[in-house]
Write a structure and sequence with these properties.
By secondary structure, the protein is mainly alpha-helical. The chain is 67% helix and 1% strand. It has helices spanning 2-10, 12-29, 34-53, 74-84, 90-102, 116-151, 156-170, 173-184, 208-228, 231-246, 249-256, 261-279, 281-287, and strands at residues 108-109, 114-115. Strand 1 (108-109) and strand 2 form a beta hairpin. The longest helix is centred in the middle third of the chain and has 36 residues, at 116-151. Helix 3 (34-53) runs antiparallel to helix 4 (74-84). A two-stranded antiparallel sheet has the order 1-2.
Length: 306
Amino acid sequence: MLAYILRRLLLIIPTLFGILIINFIIVQAAPGGPVEQMIAKLEGFEGATSRIAGGGAEVSVAGSNYRGAQGLDPALIAEIERMYGFDKSAPERLWIMVKNYAQLDFGDSFFRDAKVIDLIAEKLPVSISLGLWSTLIMYLVSIPLGIAKAVRHGSHFDVWTSSAIIVGYAIPAFLFAILLIVLFAGGSYFDWFPLRGLTSNNFEELSATGKILDYFWHLVLPITALVIGNFATMTLLTKNSFLDEINKQYVVTAKAKGLSRPRVLYGHVFRNAMLLVIAGFPSAFIGMKFIWVSLLTPSTSSATVS
């Protein structure tokens, strides 16, 4: 078992490296990169002046491969390329990016004018709170509901709960979040929950119990929006896993020995049926709003291109 776990952990390294390479290639091949965006900004503010100075004619930069570089000094284009790291070859940029990432140096954000690692540290408490509690609640709701649906397969309870979770799954999370804001965050009806932040302004003045309540009070709406559309898959997976195990021979043998229904269900079926469900826990936790990784995309960080 220990060797298996070690092999799985070691597979993280080539997998992560492959993701970085694919991400790098896609960003390099996609049009409208950071240099083009900077040129577009400069043209938006300075293009009119340069065209007027030139008598209305647009002057192209000799040898420039960038669309929209008319009227700009070639030295300025070269400086923009150097700032974004495009004065180096693609393999060299890839090597520098991987080396910087290995040193946890993610560069600076060109949009926020701050170090990416500082932005990650700033947003990490929110991301961990959302990911942790959303995943925990999703499992606490989905597993008992899935077991109940499997035991009552084909009943009115199974049909109605299936309809409810399918409707919840069909509603986009962002749309449901907007609905919650309108209804409960002072949008148009009730002002019961805060709209932003993890804590209130007077958090330090509250008692220990008050701090805990205030913390969860701020998490009610975002966690509800996340969970409502994500527990459907887990519920149906739990139900189908239990149905598959219930029909196996060892369950029939256990019933024939006179074991009670709860003993068969939770003493034998539960352990086997949960293997498939628990196997998806890491991906579910990461997928539930661990979105801080998006800060490391090449469009926001200088470390990915220089």
